[in-house]
């Protein structure tokens, strides 16, 4: 069976990539399968830079093709924050609940029509001795006033999808994988599938 290494330890991402790649008959491995590998420091100032850093660092260590995902939530009323700081918005411990509570607090009093936001996903595909490829996807939504829903991960419980009338965390994983920023970036990657194998 074909297999691809994703340079992440984020269980929410790994679950989604496992489902998205399974549709193509490809098995996903991740850095959770290699506990000795240290976290890659995200020193870039954009999603693209950080996705590249993660993919290229791990690709060099394994000398094989590696996919990395750098993603986050950009809120208009917060001038695009948390953006590239999404994972560590409330501190270096990377706590999803503390992060979304911080966003809700900062959004207190902002009316619905000004609560627009988007998820952004950059996939970097690092290939030994080749230029790294970049694929992007976004998903539009509104920030709720309180968390709703149990599915997904990260900021999903406060991200409301207007035409579904539900938060991302109220969607099933199948539904999320049809509309998410990650699914859209994956679709672009899949149009260039032959670079992977
Ligand atoms: O579909 C999503 N639904 C909800 N929240 C999401 C989603 N996609 C990204 N996010 C949030 C989670 C985290 O706060 C940040 C990603 O940060 P990001 O640095 O890319 O990932 P990470 O540090 O958790 O794992 P890693 O870098 O090892 O892949 O954006
Ligand atoms: Mg990260």
UniProtKB/TrEMBL annotation:
<feature type="binding site">
    <location>
        <position position="70"/>
    </location>
    <ligand>
        <name>Mg(2+)</name>
    </ligand>
</feature>
<keyword id="KW-0378">Hydrolase</keyword>
<feature type="binding site">
    <location>
        <position position="176"/>
    </location>
    <ligand>
        <name>substrate</name>
    </ligand>
</feature>
<dbReference type="InterPro" id="IPR029001">
    <property type="entry name" value="ITPase-like_fam"/>
</dbReference>
<dbReference type="GO" id="GO:0036222">
    <property type="term" value="F:XTP diphosphatase activity"/>
</dbReference>
<feature type="binding site">
    <location>
        <position position="41"/>
    </location>
    <ligand>
        <name>Mg(2+)</name>
    </ligand>
</feature>
<comment type="subunit">
    <text>Homodimer.</text>
</comment>
<keyword id="KW-0547">Nucleotide-binding</keyword>
<feature type="binding site">
    <location>
        <begin position="181"/>
        <end position="182"/>
    </location>
    <ligand>
        <name>substrate</name>
    </ligand>
</feature>
<keyword id="KW-0546">Nucleotide metabolism</keyword>
<feature type="binding site">
    <location>
        <begin position="153"/>
        <end position="156"/>
    </location>
    <ligand>
        <name>substrate</name>
    </ligand>
</feature>
<dbReference type="InterPro" id="IPR020922">
    <property type="entry name" value="dITP/XTP_pyrophosphatase"/>
</dbReference>
<dbReference type="InterPro" id="IPR002637">
    <property type="entry name" value="RdgB/HAM1"/>
</dbReference>
<feature type="binding site">
    <location>
        <position position="71"/>
    </location>
    <ligand>
        <name>substrate</name>
    </ligand>
</feature>
<keyword id="KW-0460">Magnesium</keyword>
<feature type="active site" description="Proton acceptor">
    <location>
        <position position="70"/>
    </location>
</feature>
<comment type="function">
    <text>Pyrophosphatase that catalyzes the hydrolysis of nucleoside triphosphates to their monophosphate derivatives, with a high preference for the non-canonical purine nucleotides XTP (xanthosine triphosphate), dITP (deoxyinosine triphosphate) and ITP. Seems to function as a house-cleaning enzyme that removes non-canonical purine nucleotides from the nucleotide pool, thus preventing their incorporation into DNA/RNA and avoiding chromosomal lesions.</text>
</comment>
<dbReference type="GO" id="GO:0036220">
    <property type="term" value="F:ITP diphosphatase activity"/>
</dbReference>
<dbReference type="GO" id="GO:0009117">
    <property type="term" value="P:nucleotide metabolic process"/>
</dbReference>
<dbReference type="GO" id="GO:0005829">
    <property type="term" value="C:cytosol"/>
</dbReference>
<dbReference type="GO" id="GO:0000166">
    <property type="term" value="F:nucleotide binding"/>
</dbReference>
<comment type="similarity">
    <text>Belongs to the HAM1 NTPase family.</text>
</comment>
<dbReference type="GO" id="GO:0017111">
    <property type="term" value="F:ribonucleoside triphosphate phosphatase activity"/>
</dbReference>
<dbReference type="Pfam" id="PF01725">
    <property type="entry name" value="Ham1p_like"/>
</dbReference>
<feature type="binding site">
    <location>
        <begin position="8"/>
        <end position="13"/>
    </location>
    <ligand>
        <name>substrate</name>
    </ligand>
</feature>
<dbReference type="GO" id="GO:0035870">
    <property type="term" value="F:dITP diphosphatase activity"/>
</dbReference>
<protein>
    <recommendedName>
        <fullName>dITP/XTP pyrophosphatase</fullName>
        <ecNumber>3.6.1.66</ecNumber>
    </recommendedName>
</protein>
<dbReference type="GO" id="GO:0046872">
    <property type="term" value="F:metal ion binding"/>
</dbReference>
<dbReference type="GO" id="GO:0009146">
    <property type="term" value="P:purine nucleoside triphosphate catabolic process"/>
</dbReference>
<keyword id="KW-0479">Metal-binding</keyword>
